[in-house]
Design goal:
Elements: H1 9-64, E1 68-77, E2 80-83, E3 99-101, E4 104-113, E5 121-124, E6 132-135, E7 140-142
Parallel strand pairs: 1-6
Antiparallel strand pairs: 1-2, 1-4, 3-4, 4-5, 6-7
Length: 156
């Protein structure tokens, strides 16, 4: 029986380089698979967090019971809150939610009753918290719950 000859230096070097390349390739494939696995875990974890946050937000919104309150624009005439047209309370309010137009101070009167020219009754000039506030013309002054409209809100 004949014996195989020992490899030459060049053959041994080539075999060693091929073995190293194969080992590096296997290592890179394992690292890529691990990276994909971690990425998928992060995506699934992120989706779970978004789902929980959405569930909490919906629950909060349902439980908060957004009431709708009508706001009437009023002016103080001899100690009486007299209802005026909504246009006097449009724009940005000054300090304490007071609109100053032509020297007169206008403000919102929340809830209650009263039409233009009548004294407002059954409500308050104190803005209710967490309620959706709409003017008598139907435009939203402030949304209750999770968000609020910037500008146009008033109260004292």
């Amino acid at each position: 029986m004949t014996q195989p000859r020992p490899p030459t230096v060049a053959e041994a070097r080539a075999r060693e380089q091929a073995r190293r390349r194969n080992a590096e390739l296997e290592q890179m494939q394992r690292a890529a698979a691990e990276k994909r696995r971690k990425r998928n875990r992060r995506l699934i974890g992120g989706a779970a967090v978004v789902g929980v946050v959405a569930l909490v937000a919906v629950g909060y919104n349902v439980l908060s019971g957004n009431d709708t309150v009508t706001a009437r624009c009023v002016v103080d005439e001899n100690g009486q809150e007299v209802v005026v047209e909504d246009r006097y309370c449009s724009g940005s309010p000054g300090m304490n939610g007071i609109f100053i137009v032509g020297g007169s101070q206008y403000r919102y009167y929340y809830g209650g009753a009263g039409t233009v020219g009548q004294t407002a009754t059954g409500g308050s000039t104190v803005k209710p918290k967490g309620a959706e506030i709409k003017s008598t013309s139907g435009s939203t002054i402030e949304r209750g719950g999770l968000g609020a409209k910037v500008g146009g809100s008033s109260g004292s």
